[in-house]
């Protein structure tokens, strides 16, 4: 029997996943209304009826089958240019969970929430989210300009963290309960350790900085990078409520990039603020590379790098090449902002030939929060 090529193995797995999800039609049960309100459309109502008919009287409807076939064809047309890169990434991943998750995420990104349900969408997850909403310290709130979000005054000792924070239950669940920046499906777990020096790229409101500060302990240090003014205001307020932890945190109000000293434009958009190197946006910020930051601070080491910087991860990693070569830190890198990130980021890290092993996890029921974990092999 002929052995299947890598591309054939990936193609078969992806095709099976797409076909499996073709009959589905989800609505609000596959949507996170706390993050973004759900609005049922006319098309939703029509296809809900088609789904009902197809599952009862007309299970073998030719009309629905032809519609499904056309959708499948269009998906593969759109995938053609990225197929080889995705296949290469699939075969870089070290465990079955990561490979299966990549296939499911590709189906979800191409077919949408109406067709594909992600692994986290379970009754247990919603019970945990409901529990997170009970972790209130007072009735104080902060109203954000971003999507009119409201942050509540929360206290996290009941989940093992001596942390007081203005945040929302969804965020608390993701950062502190699910532990978004740990890969827990292997032994040893990929995570920041006691005494580590951590680069927290994309500090947003301070939740990850506080999480890492508690994790690394008194001998560790967290360098959190954030430049968006509204985010920084809340970040500093959250750090001020946690003086012991904040003593381990240094906030750097700059934007990480492949090089230092570039003036890049951006538009204020809360945690979704992204840099633009085509001179668009109402504000500007000076860039900084991780390599230059390490030299400037004369840091003795960096053990863990987390990045969630709204599509600038690839450029920031290019600006960290010497740091990666010197220290081989463990990595937790967001790769969900751009489709190309699923190809360019693991390919770049693999081509450095530093002996990283790669894993994948996802921490929401929607498109966001896919994390690539990279762990250096023992020397």
What does it look like?
With 379 residues, the chain is an alpha/beta fold. The chain has helices at residues 6-21, 42-55, 62-79, 83-92, 96-111, 123-132, 169-177, 207-216, 229-240, 243-246, 290-297, 313-318, 321-327, 341-351; strands at residues 136-143, 150-155, 164-167, 197-201, 221-225, 249-252, 255-256, 263-266, 283-288, 304-307, 330-334, 356-362, 370-376. It has 2 domains: 6-111, no CATH class; 146-376, Vaccinia Virus protein VP39 (Rossmann fold, 3-Layer(aba) Sandwich). The chain is 40% helix and 18% strand. Strand 12 (356-362) and strand 13 form a beta hairpin. Helix 4 (83-92) packs across helix 14. The chain is globular.
For this entry, give a set of tags.
single chain; 379 residues; alpha/beta; Rossmann fold; 2 domains; 13 strands; globular
């Amino acid at each position: 029997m002929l052995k299947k090529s890598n591309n054939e193995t990936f193609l078969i797995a992806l095709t099976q996943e797409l076909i499996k999800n073709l009959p589905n039609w989800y609505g609000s049960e596959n949507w996170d209304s706390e993050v973004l309100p759900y609005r049922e459309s006319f098309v939703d109502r029509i296809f809900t009826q088609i789904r009902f008919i197809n599952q009862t009287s007309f299970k073998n409807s030719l009309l629905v089958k032809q519609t499904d076939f056309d959708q499948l064809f269009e998906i593969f047309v759109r995938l053609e240019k990225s197929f080889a890169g995705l296949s290469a990434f699939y075969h870089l991943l070290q465990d079955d969970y990561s490979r299966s998750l990549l296939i499911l995420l590709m189906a979800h990104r191409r077919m949408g929430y109406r067709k594909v349900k992600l692994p986290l969408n379970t009754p247990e997850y919603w019970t945990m989210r409901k529990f997170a909403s009970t972790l209130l310290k007072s009735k104080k709130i902060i109203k954000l300009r971003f999507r009119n979000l409201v942050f509540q005054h929360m206290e996290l000792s009941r989940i093992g963290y001596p942390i007081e924070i203005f945040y929302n239950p969804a965020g608390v669940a993701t950062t502190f309960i699910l532990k978004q920046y740990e890969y827990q499906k292997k032994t040893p777990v990929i995570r920041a350790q006691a005494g580590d020096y951590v680069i927290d790229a994309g500090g947003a409101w301070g939740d990850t900085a506080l999480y890492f500060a508690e994790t690394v302990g008194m001998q560790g240090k967290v360098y959190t990078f954030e430049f968006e003014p509204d985010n920084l205001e809340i970040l500093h307020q959250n750090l001020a409520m946690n003086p012991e932890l904040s003593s381990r945190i240094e906030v750097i109000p700059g934007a990480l990039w492949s090089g230092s000293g570039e003036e890049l434009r951006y538009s204020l958009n809360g945690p979704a603020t992204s840099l633009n190197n085509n001179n668009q946006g109402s504000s500007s910020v000076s860039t900084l590379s991780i390599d230059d930051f390490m030299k400037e601070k004369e840091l003795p080491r960096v053990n863990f790098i987390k990045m969630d910087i709204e599509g600038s991860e690839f450029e920031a990693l290019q600006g960290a090449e010497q740091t990666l070569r010197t220290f081989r830190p463990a990595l937790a890198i967001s790769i969900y902002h751009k489709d190309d990130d699923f190809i360019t980021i693991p390919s770049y890290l693999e081509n450095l030939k530093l002996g990283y092993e790669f894993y994948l996890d996802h921490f929401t029921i929607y498109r966001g929060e896919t994390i690539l974990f990279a762990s250096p092999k023992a020397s």
